[in-house]
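Below is how a single chain appears once it has passed through the pipeline. First comes the sequence as given, then the structure the pipeline wrote out for it. We keep one example in the README because the format questions we get most often are answered faster by looking than by reading.
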Amino acid sequence: MNIDISTIFQIAGIGIIVAMIHTVLKQMGKEDMAHWVTVIGFVVVLFMVVRLLNDLFQEIKTIFLFQ
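Resulting structure:
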């Protein structure tokens, strides 16, 4: 499992960008679009975390099953 600091920075970067876009859209009066941007950003980060958790569980399985 190769988790390095760049993955954490990618997730933080996505969060910052989504927050800025959400704020700009909300100030423009397009609150529904702002909420969709937030949901899409959440889904992207969720997929990244699920992939990392999958790698973690594979590593744990390999360690405890001695494969």
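The chain is about 85% helix and 0% strand.

See the next section for the split statistics.
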